[in-house]
Design a protein that fits this description.
The complex is a heterodimer of chains A (about 450) and B (about 60). Chain A contains 19 helices and no strands. With about 450 residues, chain A is mainly alpha-helical. In chain A, helix 3 packs across helix 12, helix 5 crosses helix 16 and helix 12 runs antiparallel to helix 13. The radius of gyration of chain A is 22 Å and the shape is globular. The longest helix of chain B is centred in the C-terminal third of the chain and has 25 residues. The two termini of chain B are about 25 Å apart. Classes of the chains: A mainly alpha (about 450), B mainly alpha (about 60).
């Protein structure tokens, strides 16, 4: 097992060899780059589903507004006070930092877990886009309770879209990512256009005199649709906070902030979350209310913005599934020795396409987003403890690197143990990560202190 | 110079994408006209913004 993990980590190192060195001072970027990057990254096809789900879960207008306002603020603070300071001090990617902290073997396991999670996320994006294409062929979209594929037509559409997205990802990531930057502001504008166009249908007067009343009685009514649990202020606050948990608390965005001149650049994440995770979610809520609270992103887009809406949904799915497939491929390359990049991306795309056929990947998207962050969160806590807490306790950091461990046993135990404990916690899924984070921080610090004492005892 | 022209045309197209739904909301245009206006201004944005982006230096990812 140890030698297999070593071989895996060797391949990973080759993939990331260009990111091995800390970023040099001449490569640091101005704040405008960070504002632009975040502004362009947070309007995905899944925003059509998330905001609509809040309506179906019976969120009230006040809970939505306050929950998103403060939840997104907590997310921005997490980028600013947790992720950016470590990135600016180390100038390394999470990959190389976890390797120093937890050993190359654990890094390989982390990468594979990430790849699987990326594939499911890309699958959700393909499925959301498929609802738009389904309209043209009069193929019924799956309903809220559907888990398995609902018809041959649905499977065919997902298969065609998945194949197309995968082939485009195989053909060229760089050009497509530049096109995504072009499409991004327009997709956001289409969200706003769709919501504005839906308002008269809901009865909002042009002078906006009854906007608040309509918002309370026809959009965010506080009454969930049949079969959906009621969500309140706390759920929305936590959802907005954890929906990018892997990136901020989980420290994935160290890859971005290692180029920042100052840790305060973390504040520029607000340029992404407030338009994408507040305005776009509110807009999709208005759109779903206008079509009679039916979870059908394609119908929402078409009924409120016509073919431009359908195009925006397709482009949003494509431009966000593409980098997700690319990243999944990159991570999977560790277990496919000697495979060229195109072959790995093709394999990731095939797996993603199969997953996308199952409506559960987007009908349970809110829960999936929670699980995604929860599974990767303990690694962020371990790195945080190693960086900030251990030196203050007088414990030597980076023992895994210094002693040449393939896997840091304390890190593996904390990752697995934290997940085991949080799944048993009698809390709503959305609230589990916070006590889990505290537990991971504390248990890793204690285990590291214990490990050092034992080593010191052995040396005597 | 060309790049500036493309930038202006792209931004105008994006502004039009917002203007049509505002005019629909105010009751100045019909839903059909709104949908046509939105699709044409969208196509204009995608064309001019692509030309604008292609005319500049390749962006450095931070």
């Amino acid at each position: 097992m140890g030698s297999r993990l070593s071989a895996l980590s060797g391949r990973l190192d080759k993939l990331y060899e260009f990111d091995r060195e800390p970023v040099t001072a001449d490569k640091l970027q101005p704040w405008t780059k960070f504002a632009g990057l975040y502004a362009g990254e947070h309007v995905a096809a899944t925003e059509f589903v998330i905001g609509a789900f809040f309506v179906l879960h019976g969120v009230t207008a006040g809970d939505l507004l306050l929950g998103l306002l403060f939840g997104n603020l907590l997310a921005v603070f997490s980028w600013t006070f947790i992720c950016a300071p470590i990135a600016v001090r180390t100038r390394l990617t999470l990959y190389w930092y976890v390797r120093k902290v937890a050993g190359p073997g654990l890094m390989a396991i982390y990468n594979i877990a990430n790849a699987v999670l990326y594939c499911i996320l890309a699958g959700a994006m393909i499925a959301v886009s498929a609802t738009a294409v389904g309209l043209a062929f009069r193929i019924k979209s799956p309903s809220l309770s559907d888990i398995l594929p609902t018809s041959l037509g649905w499977v065919l559409i997902v298969f065609v879209l998945g194949t197309l997205f995968t082939l485009l990802a195989v053909l060229g990531f760089e050009k497509l990512s530049r096109f995504a930057q072009v499409a991004s502001p327009w997709i956001f504008v289409i969200f706003i256009a769709g919501a504005l166009a839906a308002l008269p249908r809901l009865g909002v007067r042009p002078d906006l005199s009854n906007l608040v009343e309509i918002a309370r009685t026809k959009i965010w009514t506080g009454v969930p649709v049949a079969g959906q649990a009621k969500l309140g202020f706390g759920h929305i606050l936590f959802f907005a906070w954890f929906c990018n948990l892997a990136m901020h608390v989980g420290l994935s965005d160290m890859a971005v902030f290692r180029y920042a001149k100052r840790w305060t650049y973390g504040l520029f994440s607000a340029f992404g979350v407030y338009p994408g995770h507040m305005l776009a979610w509110a807009a999709s809520g208005v759109m779903v209310a206008a079509i009679g609270r039916e979870m059908n992103p394609g119908l929402m887009a078409y009924e409120t913005a016509g073919f431009a809406g359908v195009g925006a949904l397709l482009l949003a799915g494509w431009t966000t599934a593409n980098p997700t497939l690319y990243r999944a491929g990159l991570a999977l390359q560790t277990v496919t020795p000697n495979w060229p990049r195109w072959k790995v991306t093709l394999a990731a795309g095939a797996a993603t396409t199969v997953l996308a056929c199952f409506p559960v990947v987007f009908m349970k998207l809110l829960d999936y987003v929670a699980l995604y962050g929860l599974i990767l969160m303990p690694i962020g806590a371990i790195v945080f403890a190693e960086h900030w807490i251990l030196p203050r306790l007088g414990i030597e950091p980076f023992r895994a690197e210094k002693l040449g461990w393939v896997v840091n046993p304390a890190a593996l135990a904390v990752w697995a143990g934290t997940l085991g404990v949080v799944f048993l916690l009698p809390l709503h899924l959305y609230f589990k990560w916070l006590p889990g984070y505290g537990l991971a921080l504390a248990s890793y610090s204690v285990l590291s202190a214990f490990g050092r004492k034992k080593a010191a005892g052995g040396a005597r | 110079m060309k790049r500036v022209v493309y930038a202006v045309l792209a931004l105008l197209s994006l502004a039009l994408c917002l203007l049509f739904p505002i005019r629909l909301f105010l009751g100045d245009v019909t839903f059909v006209r709104y949908k046509f206006g939105l699709i044409f201004s969208s196509l204009a944005w995608l064309v001019f913004a692509t030309l604008w982006a292609a005319g500049g230096k390749a962006g450095k990812k931070p």
